[in-house]
Amino acid sequence: MEGDTVDVEEDGGGYTWEGEYERPWEAIQEDIEGHILAPDDDFMYKTKRRKLFNHESGVKLGIMRHILIVVDSTQSMNDKDLKPNRFTCTKTVLKKFLDEFFDFNPISQVGLILMSDGLSLPLPSLSSGNVSVHKRALDTDVECSGECSLQNAMELSLRMLRHIPTHASREVIIIHGSLTSCDPGNIFSTINDFNQQNIRCSVIGLAASVKLCHTICERTSGVYQVILDEVHFRDCLLQHCRPPGVKASTETALIKMGFPQHKTVASLSICVCHLDSKSKDCLSTSGYRCPQCQSKYCELPVECVTCGITLVLAPQLARSYHHLFPLKMFIESTASQVYVCPSCRHSFCIDCDLYCHETLHNCPGCENSLRTQ
Amino acid sequence: MATVAEKNVLIAVIDVSQFYELSMSSEVQSQVLSFQHCIDQITVFINSYLLSSHCNSVAVILCHQLGSTLVYPVPNQAELDEAHPELNKGKYEPIGLMNGLLRERINQFMLSISENIPALVSSSTLLSGALSMSLCYAQRCSREATAGETIKPRLLVIRASTDAASQHIATMNCIFAAQKQNIPIDCCALWEDSSFMQQATDITGGIYIKIPEPAGLLQFLLWVFLPDIKSRSSLQLPQSSVVDYRASCFCDQKLVDTGFVCSVCLAIFCKFTPICPVCQAHFKLPSLPQLKSKKKGKSSSKSKAKQ
């Protein structure tokens, strides 16, 4: 697995069979007790740190994101160049992405669209902020067949995103396995519509670079990536977890939100979110009640079906604050493997440096020094 | 031979700030828990935790207005073993050594604080720092684990002071990091309720308890916090009351049911303001003008149709 990441990082590696004969077993090192050491730790750390540096700060971010993921499910997705095949691999990578995405963007919504037989169909878990619903929708059996139509998929996402308020960041990610697109009309007019509606469209190509995809991404200020292998695929998709910068002209708004409390009452009632479902677990005594119209919900965040207000929990908002007040990068000091926080001058090892920036988003040194509070 | 699959690490964060003030004012001392008494009780708890299973290990972090320190384990344990042979007399060796070390290091810490009293004026305990530190320590434990070993860290915060609003974001970051890594945070509040810790325990699935009688600290520690996470489900533990998740608005810190949130910086306000005081974003007027524009749009399209 380590070898894969190395290959991914070095561009232009060529075909595997053209390369030198590799002896991966020679790179394995053992410590004194005979435990296998992970090869090339240093290299992995460097790439991880470089990734951290790539995030620009001081840019206005689209924190509330409405994102549609278009998944190719045409014939080309049956190819076995990704294990076990492209579609299954995409599903597993997507599930990982969804977990990470909601962790980073708790007040965002995701919708899934499948492209097959020249058509595009939204999955039933349309625009929901609930991970488990999406995962269940992904687990249903889908047969990959027919050709792909980028225009149909884009038109559908345009229809789905059009009504979303302009202060939210509207994005489409297309996972594109085929090399062709069978469109009913002029796709360039659709691209212009995307541009007008301020929708950002990114494409991840599973096969080869396609000029049309390149144009789409360029015009809608998205990112076009073509994957090298599974690991790179995951990295490419996970890059979209971080909220993108938005144009300065993007509208800002003061959004009315409700902060409901979890309450338990004596009588049984059905929550609004499960009204349509036939399962019995929708009957309960506890739930969140909309402070405006008293509709009951079992999960947050959600947009109230009855009165349209956005319902969130205060910690869910707090979860996004680290995007807005990011931790300063630590400076690598002259002594190797020592990283110094620029504000408190405490030094950290590489592991703590990565942990602080990736997960904790705090500097233990700064938090422990007596500031002017 | 089967190796130990799971290793439990208890990270105890002890808030010592109030104790210092209490020990200064001798009048109250008789009524409330004295510092020495409290440390003794915590030591007994830690000892029983260590003795209950050989896979248990402990870290102790002291937290104060001036900062936090990891008092146990110490970096060069082997040297200390040799330096204090007298500590081990008549006791189970590692425990006796640890108790001596703990006492010594805590005394050192308190002495170092007493030199800096002027700096303490109107500041609050740096809980977020202690939490960040303990999470980094937990991370280190799992990094240093040998192959096939899983580390199950948990945090126990013994809280003796009030929350500081300035630490809100940092504390929340800690809570989410803990939740992401499945590290439960337990809290034992001594004098005052702490809303941060109530949220922390609720989000990470820990236990929150406010002790009615601080002198009986040990009882609560042994009954509530000694059993491991697995056995909790079969115990009848004190139920925490409903946590208040309402947001407090940025303008006058009131708890609100419905509020206005800035789409750029996510600041919460209780009433509409045209310009965000936090990020200076300019807002359009809410709902009412939008309705007007809709009508206008309709009417204009109608008029167009008529034409």
UniProtKB/TrEMBL annotation, chain A:
Sequence ranges assigned to domain VWFA in this UniProt record: 66-206
Specify the superkingdom.
Eukaryota
* GO MF terms held by the record: zinc ion binding
Q: What SUPFAM superfamilies does the record tag this protein with?
A: Cysteine-rich domain, vWA-like
Keyword Oxidoreductase present in the record's keywords: the answer is no
Q: Which UniProt keywords apply?
A: DNA damage, DNA repair, Metal-binding, Nucleus, Transcription, Transcription regulation, Zinc, Zinc-finger
**A Pfam family recorded for this sequence:** Ssl1
List the InterPro entries. C1-like_sf, Ssl1-like, TFIIH_C1-like_dom, TFIIH_SSL1/p44, VWF_A, vWFA_dom_sf, Znf_C2H2_type, Znf_RING/FYVE/PHD
What are the GO BP annotations of this UniProt entry?
Answer: DNA-templated transcription; nucleotide-excision repair; regulation of transcription by RNA polymerase II
Q: Where are the zinc fingers (C4-type)?
A: 290-307
The record's subcellular location field reads: Nucleus
Question: What GO terms fall under cellular component here?
Answer: transcription factor TFIIH core complex; transcription factor TFIIH holo complex
Q: Which family does it belong to?
A: Belongs to the GTF2H2 family.
Please state what the protein is called. Answer: VWFA domain-containing protein
| Species of provenance | Amphimedon queenslandica
Q: What is the lineage of its organism?
A: Eukaryota, Metazoa, Porifera, Demospongiae, Heteroscleromorpha
UniProtKB/TrEMBL annotation, chain B:
Q: Can you provide one Gene Ontology molecular function annotated for this UniProt record?
A: zinc ion binding
Matches recorded under InterPro entries: TFIIH_Tfb4/GTF2H3, vWFA_dom_sf
- Protein name in UniProt: General transcription factor IIH subunit 3
* Keyword Transcription found: yes
Its GO CC terms are: transcription factor TFIIH core complex; transcription factor TFIIH holo complex
Major location category of this protein: nucleus
So what does this one do? Component of the general transcription and DNA repair factor IIH (TFIIH) core complex, which is involved in general and transcription-coupled nucleotide excision repair (NER) of damaged DNA and, when complexed to CAK, in RNA transcription by RNA polymerase II. In NER, TFIIH acts by opening DNA around the lesion to allow the excision of the damaged oligonucleotide and its replacement by a new DNA fragment. In transcription, TFIIH has an essential role in transcription initiation.
Q: Please name the GO terms of the biological process aspect recorded for this protein, alphabetically.
A: nucleotide-excision repair; regulation of DNA-templated transcription
Question: What's the family?
Answer: Belongs to the TFB4 family.
| Keyword list, A-Z | DNA damage, DNA repair, Metal-binding, Nucleus, Transcription, Transcription regulation, Zinc, Zinc-finger
- Subcellular compartments: Nucleus
**Top-level taxonomic group:** Eukaryota
Q: How does it assemble?
A: Part of a TFIID-containing RNA polymerase II pre-initiation complex that is composed of TBP and at least GTF2A1, GTF2A2, GTF2E1, GTF2E2, GTF2F1, GTF2H2, GTF2H3, GTF2H4, GTF2H5, GTF2B, TCEA1, ERCC2, ERCC3, TAF1, TAF2, TAF3, TAF4, TAF5, TAF6, TAF7, TAF8, TAF9, TAF10, TAF11, TAF12 and TAF13. Component of the 7-subunit TFIIH core complex composed of XPB/ERCC3, XPD/ERCC2, GTF2H1, GTF2H2, GTF2H3, GTF2H4 and GTF2H5, which is active in NER.
Q: Does the keyword Phosphoprotein apply?
A: no
One Pfam match: Tfb4
